[in-house]
């Protein structure tokens, strides 16, 4: 959907053209400031250009102030990530990627969050369905599910260690410095995102559509399979992505439970010691700054690629049934 | 034939709402459940469809539905908000139930019958309200249900679309057994063979449509079906009204006739083809439809036999 926006005396541009133009100007300004070695110039330029766009949109003083503040926030969000990418030279990234411990770290940083997300979804999607249907005590259960969001993550790690570690609920399960422990810790901090995303997905499903399906002859299960699930899949998937991304970025809980992890590494065909990405980055900062930056860039790239891929897949997720 | 004699209680934190109804819908008949918001008509419909627990019995063509889940009741639902499956195309929507019914009708033929054949491959989200409801009707028809349950199917539509679809709906439901929920007396009068007026979860009156509209059993039914209620003692003697509490429909009140008694117009509102006129007659107020905007001082008459004496003890809230 493209809407024409008229900016004051500026000729009307299509919305897409406007976005592209603003983006191109920002990239050019960033490159110039970077070449001059004066990053402050770019930050000032970005906020000032936001103010100009606000003024041209002709929404009064509040429009200008809101545009300024929004511009500042966007700069604060995007500028550090762009800087990270520009600081890392391609050579240092390639050099880092050649290191076996870096590759193991990247493997572990994708694999363990995947398992955690799978666990969170297998247990969390049915819960989301129950929460949507409603039951006595639902508010309490909702609070319990969201509890990990407010618990400091190192505390969460300690709690997982005490609950499921040696002498805990699962005596035979390796937790400290092991993949199961790492997955449990990651699932603990990321499950709320999976549950909340799935619940939002289910809540968008029209109850009358489900009733219509039942009256047309579909059993409870068939209605779920043919109506509820296809309509909710977008919410479930976006919850899963958020949950996965949250798990990838986890540091505190991992540092407590699984600083060094013993993991089966397929390329080597054997068990190896590996470190989770965020832990590796923090440790490597003291040892080899370039390697830390390179690993950080790789992690960022993996996250962005997965994020964009799943976003593209969910765009017409409704047709997946 | 759909027979039900059901009772159910619906509770939320503070209140309990009870629904109780004993009604019969004959084969090929459309029964309207007519009532204001909160009268329990939608709950009753959902209960018939199998979405609520209840006491009593529901029988469809001699078969008890009491323990049947919704999918085994052979009742097709049509909703106010269409409730189409937004992830499926129009044709897939209509054919949804065919998976579960060997004798299902051809979806394309149904779409053609309802005048929306050209929309078959579209997504429901791109349709207008009237088109959506036609698709929803086709979907309900596809499975050859034993009866239809319709919940305000026209209420979300604009007036021209509503009138066109209502006329088509009358044709579609002509030979079908249907329960039709509405709060709109005009729709009820147009589509119903019989009407049950609901109030507070109970049936206030049930009968053939014209009987209910012409001879309401209570003040509430009279008012809700559009009749004017007056006390005979408030009317001038010249009107020859019977004694008691009277109901008279606006369409029977004649304005500006030579034989009438004097009346004063207190309000005249233009409605489509006529003027809806409020008249002060004696100490009473009558409503009439006049073809032209009448002068302030006019006359009014009601033909003999058009007055309906409300039954004594025709109190409201009695069933």
From TrEMBL, chain B:
Residues in ABC transporter domain copies: 2-225
InterPro entries (UniProt xref): AAA+_ATPase (IPR003593), ABC_SmlMolc_Importer (IPR050093), ABC_transporter-like_ATP-bd (IPR003439), ABC_transporter-like_CS (IPR017871), Mo/tungstate-bd_C_term_dom (IPR008995), P-loop_NTPase (IPR027417)
Pfam families according to UniProt: ABC_tran
Transmembrane segments: none
Enzyme Commission code(s) on record: 7.3.2.6
Keyword Lipid metabolism: no
Enzyme class (EC, first level): translocase
Transport found in the keyword field: yes
Swiss-Prot/TrEMBL catalytic activity: tungstate(in) + ATP + H2O = tungstate(out) + ADP + phosphate + H(+)
Membrane topology: Peripheral membrane protein
Domain of life, per lineage: Archaea
Protein's cellular compartments: Cell membrane
Listed PROSITE patterns: ABC_TRANSPORTER_1 (PS00211), ABC_TRANSPORTER_2 (PS50893)
Keywords: ATP-binding, Molybdenum, Nucleotide-binding, Transport
Cellular component annotations (GO), alphabetically ordered: plasma membrane
Gene Ontology MF: a single term: ATP hydrolysis activity
Family designation: Belongs to the ABC transporter superfamily. Sulfate/tungstate importer (TC 3.A.1.6) family.
Assembly and interaction partners: The complex is composed of two ATP-binding proteins (WtpC), two transmembrane proteins (WtpB) and a solute-binding protein (WtpA).
Protein's UniProt name: Molybdate/tungstate import ATP-binding protein WtpC
Taxonomic lineage of the native organism: Archaea, Methanobacteriati, Methanobacteriota, Stenosarchaea group, Halobacteria
